[in-house]
């Protein structure tokens, strides 16, 4: 437990010190459920509750009844049937009727326990046999006066494991430990941390009551209120910590100042801009200009769907840096993407006095030496590169801007090495073409300022997406032929699905032979790319496709990032049901880059599970990456979405950014309001909260640059 001034920290006690646990059980709890301290047990959430608060009568049982508790007298019991059909059957009777009880296991033991004429409390799940209600393997205890009204709270059932169950620590036995713990605790052990104003405004349950009611609520409504309070608290603390990080950067971080829009920027904007900027691009450039002129370090996440024109925004900001006497760098995750950025950018800047170079793992030694020298003496204005830019040998004269493309492919520590290459940390722009759902952006990237390009350039036609079953494969291939006759090109993509690389490779080769049968040489030419090829072979094959030397590209998802062929108008995705939504959307974004109408055909087997059917339906219904990302988050949960695993922001014990959007929005708003009113949490009303946050600082704070 976090140490809060003036409280006895009982929750920090090791779990073996809890009465009834001891060293052996403690070892199991640590290994199986990560419960090391009293606090860990307090935060273990029951996954359901058993309601023994009411004692019902037999006449209350109806076909819809689920679990029930009955008080009655045992009027008869005996063993029926032979061998496998052998069972113990008893009858229990109350003033309103008779209920049958049945046991198939532990018969001898139960028989000894039963006594005719004895009053019992019986609890279990109701089923019907030949129209008569019965309970199989009921829970039973001898009735006594104090149990007349049933229990005073619901009984918790916790997640358990086979190993724990085998040692008598199933989901309900753990409840005995929690009960012992709750009896030890007082309000001072779980002090309130939220300001009174927020508790009143949102009508939230006090913290101590919320923790006790999460385990032992008097009724389901109280449990829900307790859970809501604790979910809000989790979101609120996370939002507050990120808000403080963001605010500290805005207030205290130093950044280089891009004070002027200079000659190079203006010449490019007026004479060499390949198309009119969209309203969204102009808005984003304004936001970035405001940041880079403020004297504080910029940390901005730029989101934009595939083809929305992020690169041109990045380029304009680079020119701004150069006009102000600074160097810039752009880091991309693969050589293919780096090459493409370099070719695009140097093509656009060829008329201007800007020295752009490229640095990757395969840059030749002599050229590398020259690049390193020129970066250090400042003659290179701008370098595009892969991870190679992170090496210690790469030194800049005055780096003012660092751009990271497809940022989720780089670890936090890797990115931080870029910022250390300048005395005053450079401005940072991280770009992603994988739209991040709003809820995820608020939690995983909440410490970054966010810009979104939510408009496509005006010459883009929406891609028509259709789902087809494998049975009509020959019609799909005929469609590709018709497009090739018009001078277009096509991709045919196979999934990486097997555990083994060998099987994947065989699948791809089989697919390639199939495609060759439909498109025989020399009438058609096919390029193939996959992960087993050397980078040189891959690049050559992609280059041939790019220059229209081959009309069809067969490959794996290697092509997902970074192949830009405006002439390609058809994307066929084989076994589309085996891809995730975001990946399907990324692949689809490889077409539709020219002025022609483009098509994405999702080919699948005929046996689809519900999730797969839902994914394919969404793909056909919308081209909007943000809608797709929201749906992906709903279907898969945040843990599986690329790049979020390394973010501590998602380790919520209770709250879910998918199911609890409402609480996340409220927490965000409350945290912002609080920091606006009291940025240093200096007021008396926020003192408990400040102490609590300080007690958390030993834990990993989210990286300054997520």
Automatic annotation (TrEMBL):
<dbReference type="GO" id="GO:0006281">
    <property type="term" value="P:DNA repair"/>
</dbReference>
<feature type="domain" description="Helicase ATP-binding">
    <location>
        <begin position="291"/>
        <end position="453"/>
    </location>
</feature>
<keyword id="KW-0067">ATP-binding</keyword>
<dbReference type="GO" id="GO:0006310">
    <property type="term" value="P:DNA recombination"/>
</dbReference>
<dbReference type="InterPro" id="IPR027417">
    <property type="entry name" value="P-loop_NTPase"/>
</dbReference>
<dbReference type="GO" id="GO:0003677">
    <property type="term" value="F:DNA binding"/>
</dbReference>
<dbReference type="Pfam" id="PF00271">
    <property type="entry name" value="Helicase_C"/>
</dbReference>
<dbReference type="InterPro" id="IPR012340">
    <property type="entry name" value="NA-bd_OB-fold"/>
</dbReference>
<keyword id="KW-0227">DNA damage</keyword>
<dbReference type="GO" id="GO:0043138">
    <property type="term" value="F:3'-5' DNA helicase activity"/>
</dbReference>
<dbReference type="InterPro" id="IPR045562">
    <property type="entry name" value="RecG_dom3_C"/>
</dbReference>
<keyword id="KW-0234">DNA repair</keyword>
<comment type="similarity">
    <text>Belongs to the helicase family. RecG subfamily.</text>
</comment>
<keyword id="KW-0347">Helicase</keyword>
<protein>
    <recommendedName>
        <fullName>ATP-dependent DNA helicase RecG</fullName>
        <ecNumber>5.6.2.4</ecNumber>
    </recommendedName>
</protein>
<dbReference type="InterPro" id="IPR011545">
    <property type="entry name" value="DEAD/DEAH_box_helicase_dom"/>
</dbReference>
<feature type="domain" description="Helicase C-terminal">
    <location>
        <begin position="472"/>
        <end position="634"/>
    </location>
</feature>
<dbReference type="InterPro" id="IPR033454">
    <property type="entry name" value="RecG_wedge"/>
</dbReference>
<dbReference type="GO" id="GO:0005524">
    <property type="term" value="F:ATP binding"/>
</dbReference>
<dbReference type="Pfam" id="PF00270">
    <property type="entry name" value="DEAD"/>
</dbReference>
<keyword id="KW-0233">DNA recombination</keyword>
<dbReference type="InterPro" id="IPR004609">
    <property type="entry name" value="ATP-dep_DNA_helicase_RecG"/>
</dbReference>
<dbReference type="InterPro" id="IPR014001">
    <property type="entry name" value="Helicase_ATP-bd"/>
</dbReference>
<dbReference type="InterPro" id="IPR001650">
    <property type="entry name" value="Helicase_C-like"/>
</dbReference>
<dbReference type="InterPro" id="IPR047112">
    <property type="entry name" value="RecG/Mfd"/>
</dbReference>
<dbReference type="GO" id="GO:0016887">
    <property type="term" value="F:ATP hydrolysis activity"/>
</dbReference>
<dbReference type="Pfam" id="PF19833">
    <property type="entry name" value="RecG_dom3_C"/>
</dbReference>
<keyword id="KW-0378">Hydrolase</keyword>
<keyword id="KW-0238">DNA-binding</keyword>
<comment type="function">
    <text>Plays a critical role in recombination and DNA repair. Helps process Holliday junction intermediates to mature products by catalyzing branch migration. Has replication fork regression activity, unwinds stalled or blocked replication forks to make a HJ that can be resolved. Has a DNA unwinding activity characteristic of a DNA helicase with 3'-5' polarity.</text>
</comment>
<keyword id="KW-0413">Isomerase</keyword>
<dbReference type="Pfam" id="PF17191">
    <property type="entry name" value="RecG_wedge"/>
</dbReference>
<keyword id="KW-0547">Nucleotide-binding</keyword>
């Amino acid at each position: 437990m976090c140490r809060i001034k003036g409280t006895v920290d009982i929750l920090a006690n090791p779990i073996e010190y809890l009465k009834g646990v001891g060293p052996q059980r403690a070892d199991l709890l640590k290994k199986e459920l990560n419960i090391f301290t009293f606090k860990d047990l307090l935060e273990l959430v029951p996954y359901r509750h058993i309601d023994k608060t009411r004692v019902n009568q037999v006449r209350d049982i109806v076909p819809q009844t689920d679990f029930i508790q009955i008080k009655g007298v045992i009027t008869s019991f005996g063993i029926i049937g032979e061998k496998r059909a052998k069972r113990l059957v008893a009858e229990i009777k109350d003033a309103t009727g008779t209920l049958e009880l049945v046991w198939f296991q532990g018969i001898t033991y139960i028989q000894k326990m039963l006594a005719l004429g004895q009053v019992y409390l019986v609890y279990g799940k109701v089923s019907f046999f030949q129209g008569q209600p019965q309970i199989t393997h009921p829970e039973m205890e001898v009735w006594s006066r104090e149990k007349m009204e049933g229990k005073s709270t619901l009984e918790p059932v916790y997640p358990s494991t086979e190993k724990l169950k085998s040692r008598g620590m199933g989901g309900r036995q753990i409840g005995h430990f929690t009960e012992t713990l709750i009896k030890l605790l007082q309000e001072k052990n779980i002090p309130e941390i939220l300001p009174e104003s927020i508790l009143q405004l949102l009508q939230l349950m006090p913290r101590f009551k919320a923790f006790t009611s999460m385990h032992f609520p008097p009724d389901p409504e109280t449990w829900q209120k307790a859970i809501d309070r604790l979910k809000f608290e989790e979101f609120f603390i996370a939002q507050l910590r990120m808000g403080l990080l963001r605010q500290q950067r805005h207030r205290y971080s130093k950044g280089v100042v891009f004070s002027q829009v200079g000659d190079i920027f203006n010449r490019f904007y007026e004479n060499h801009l390949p198309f009119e900027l969209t309203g969204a691009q102009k808005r984003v450039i304004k936001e970035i200009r405001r940041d880079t002129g403020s004297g504080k370090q910029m940390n901005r996440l730029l989101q934009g769907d595939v083809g929305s024109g992020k690169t041109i925004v990045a380029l304009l900001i680079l020119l701004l840096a150069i006009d102000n006497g600074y160097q810039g760098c752009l880091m991309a995750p693969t050589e293919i993407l780096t090459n493409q950025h370099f070719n695009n950018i140097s093509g656009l800047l060829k008329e201007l006095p800007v020295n752009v170079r490229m640095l990757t793992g395969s840059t030749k030694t002599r050229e590398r030496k020259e690049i390193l020298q020129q970066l250090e003496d400042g003659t290179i204005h701008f370098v595009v590169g892969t991870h190679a830019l992170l090496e210690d040998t790469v030194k800049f004269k005055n780096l003012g801007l660092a751009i990271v493309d497809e940022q989720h492919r780089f670890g936090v520590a890797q990115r931080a090495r870029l910022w250390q290459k300048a005395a005053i940390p450079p401005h940072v722009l991280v770009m992603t073409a994988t739209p991040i759902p709003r809820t995820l952006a608020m939690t995983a990237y909440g410490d970054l300022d966010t810009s979104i390009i939510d408009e496509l350039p005006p010459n883009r036609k929406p891609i028509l997406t259709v789902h087809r079953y494998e049975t009509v494969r020959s019609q799909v291939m005929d469609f590709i032929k018709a497009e090739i006759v018009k001078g277009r090109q096509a991709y045919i993509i196979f999934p990486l699905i097997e555990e083994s690389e060998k099987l994947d490779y065989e699948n791809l080769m089989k697919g390639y032979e199939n495609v060759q049968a439909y498109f025989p040489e020399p009438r058609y030419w096919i390029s193939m790319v996959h992960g087993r090829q050397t980078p040189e072979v891959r690049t050559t094959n992609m280059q041939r496709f790019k220059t229209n030397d081959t009309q069809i590209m067969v490959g794996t998802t290697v092509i997902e990032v970074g192949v830009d062929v405006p002439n390609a108008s058809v994307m066929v995705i084989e076994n589309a049901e085996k891809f995730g939504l975001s990946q399907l959307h990324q692949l689809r974004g490889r077409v539709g880059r020219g002025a022609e109408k483009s098509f994405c055909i999702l080919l699948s087997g005929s046996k689809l599970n519900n999730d797969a059917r839902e994914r394919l339906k969404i793909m056909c219904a919308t081209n909007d990456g943000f809608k797709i990302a929201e749906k992906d988050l709903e279907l898969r949960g945040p843990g599986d979405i690329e790049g979020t695993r390394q973010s501590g922001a998602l380790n919520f014990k209770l709250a879910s950014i998918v199911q609890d959007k409402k609480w996340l929005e409220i927490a965000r708003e409350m945290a912002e309001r609080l920091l606006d009113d009291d940025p240093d949490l200096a007021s008396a009303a926020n003192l408990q909260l400040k102490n609590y946050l300080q007690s958390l600082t030993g834990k990993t704070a989210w990286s300054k640059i997520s």
